[in-house]
């Protein structure tokens, strides 16, 4: 069938590097670390006492106090970034078909802070069952998509994707497919997460997934470095407005780039560990290229999952070499998690935005905190260590992988008439 083309016409970001897209991007190209001591709860007794928190965020600057109380922070973040993206797109709600406008939003966990608070208060009250009437609506992972659709009156497809750290990329891919198939003209998509809480830090710490470099939080996220010891937990959100190409052109929209294709695969291997040879990761990049109708040689930049874990980083780079062959040594690779930390279900959203901005500025953001080469990593790979690099970028690919073996990739390219 004749598939519609999908373009990006709006962006919104709330990250540990800044509370707007421009602040976020400035932090990335300047190699700024968003890590620091945890302020959201007393982490003194935890093995990991730092994270990449959102900073200087006052929800009352974005919505009234009554509305804010009804939303878990992950949904607050979603609403804020969706609004930035919507304003950036310049869409006039009176001039679009709201039946063909939808929301698909990703979150790996949802309202963890609300769940933690309610259970804690339940036990402190002597197990008296007096729960907040908004407890369930605040907690469920789909509620962010629901609130966004209510705000803008979008009556098309509306749901959440939950695939751990691949959630937002799966959301973006699904939203694009609705447009490609002619089922939608406009989609708000992305992801949000607010897991810097005792349960989040404690849970990932128990899995031995987090860095314990408490003496130097700003250098703790060090993808591909020999001495990496785990990821740094992050929080925030990213939103993209996807639009059918002719629909965007007809209203004179500013078009950032085209979303060319996407892929999804499973490792079918282990609950938390990646396939050691990067099998699923290899296949998901190949699927994305096939979906986009592109050759490996057409990709100039890969924003890798690159979490800073001993096993994951090596497996992903093996996958890149298998999927791209000799071209793997011509393209640039970087992990922006070295600066933002790992936003879990929101990672794919802010990393997609990094790819879009890389295309716009023809700049590859760096992988910071590289100190010692890892002999298991091929030195021919261009991992863009420590400093951003200017280069021609016509197409960029973003990878996200989640616990459970979930893999998703998406490709953005410069728009061609």
UniProtKB/TrEMBL annotation:
InterPro entries: 3-oxoacyl-ACP_synth-2 (IPR017568), Beta-ketoacyl_synthase (IPR000794), Ketoacyl_synth_C (IPR014031), Ketoacyl_synth_N (IPR014030), PKS_Beta-ketoAc_synthase_dom (IPR020841), Thiolase-like (IPR016039). It comes from the Bacteria. It catalyses: (9Z)-hexadecenoyl-[ACP] + malonyl-[ACP] + H(+) = 3-oxo-(11Z)-octadecenoyl-[ACP] + holo-[ACP] + CO2; a fatty acyl-[ACP] + malonyl-[ACP] + H(+) = a 3-oxoacyl-[ACP] + holo-[ACP] + CO2. GO terms for cellular component: cytosol. The keyword Transcription does not apply. Belongs to the thiolase-like superfamily. Beta-ketoacyl-ACP synthases family. Involved in the type II fatty acid elongation cycle. Catalyzes the elongation of a wide range of acyl-ACP by the addition of two carbons from malonyl-ACP to an acyl acceptor. Can efficiently catalyze the conversion of palmitoleoyl-ACP (cis-hexadec-9-enoyl-ACP) to cis-vaccenoyl-ACP (cis-octadec-11-enoyl-ACP), an essential step in the thermal regulation of fatty acid composition. This is 3-oxoacyl-[acyl-carrier-protein] synthase 2. It comes from Aureibacter tunicatorum.
């Amino acid at each position: 069938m004749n598939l519609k083309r999908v373009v990006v016409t709006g962006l919104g970001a709330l990250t540990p590097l800044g509370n707007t897209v421009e602040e976020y991007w400035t932090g990335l190209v300047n190699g700024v670390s968003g890590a620091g001591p945890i302020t959201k709860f007393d982490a003194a007794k935890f093995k990991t006492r730092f994270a990449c928190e959102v900073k200087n965020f006052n929800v009352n600057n974005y919505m009234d106090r009554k509305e804010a109380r009804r939303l878990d922070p992950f949904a607050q973040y979603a609403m804020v970034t969706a609004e930035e993206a919507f304003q950036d797109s310049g869409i006039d709600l009176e001039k679009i078909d709201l039946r063909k406008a939808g929301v698909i939003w990703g979150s790996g966990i949802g309202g963890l802070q609300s769940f933690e608070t309610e259970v804690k208060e339940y036990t402190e009250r002597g197990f008296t069952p007096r729960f907040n009437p908004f407890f369930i609506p605040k907690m469920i992972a789909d509620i962010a998509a629901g609130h966004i659709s209510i705000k803008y009156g979008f009556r098309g497809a509306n749901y959440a994707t939950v695939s751990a750290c691949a959630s937002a990329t799966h959301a973006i891919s699904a939203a694009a497919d609705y447009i490609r198939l002619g089922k939608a003209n406009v989609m708000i998509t992305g992801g949000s997460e607010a897991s810097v809480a005792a349960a989040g830090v404690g849970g990932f710490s128990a899995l031995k997934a987090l860095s314990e470099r408490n003496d130097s939080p700003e250098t703790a996220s060090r993808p591909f470095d020999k001495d990496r010891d785990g990821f740094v937990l992050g929080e925030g959100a990213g939103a993209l407005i996807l639009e059918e190409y002719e629909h965007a052109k007809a209203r004179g929209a500013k078009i950032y780039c085209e979303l060319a294709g996407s892929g999804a695969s499973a490792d079918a291997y282990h609950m938390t560990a990646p396939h050691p040879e990067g099998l699923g990761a290899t296949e998901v990049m190949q699927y994305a290229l096939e979906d986009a109708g592109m050759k490996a040689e057409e990709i100039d930049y890969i924003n890798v999952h690159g979490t800073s874990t001993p096993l994951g980083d090596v497996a992903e780079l093996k996958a890149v070499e298998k999927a791209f062959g000799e071209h793997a040594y011509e393209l640039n690779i970087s992990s922006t998690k070295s600066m933002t930390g790992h936003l879990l279900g929101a990672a794919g959203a802010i990393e997609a935005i990094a790819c879009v901005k890389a295309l716009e500025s023809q700049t590859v953001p760096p992988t910071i905190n590289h100190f010692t080469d890892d002999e298991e990593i091929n030195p021919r790979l261009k991992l863009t260590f420590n400093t951003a690099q200017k280069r021609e970028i016509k197409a960029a690919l973003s990878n996200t992988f989640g616990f459970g073996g979930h893999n998703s990739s998406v490709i953005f390219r410069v728009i061609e008439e």
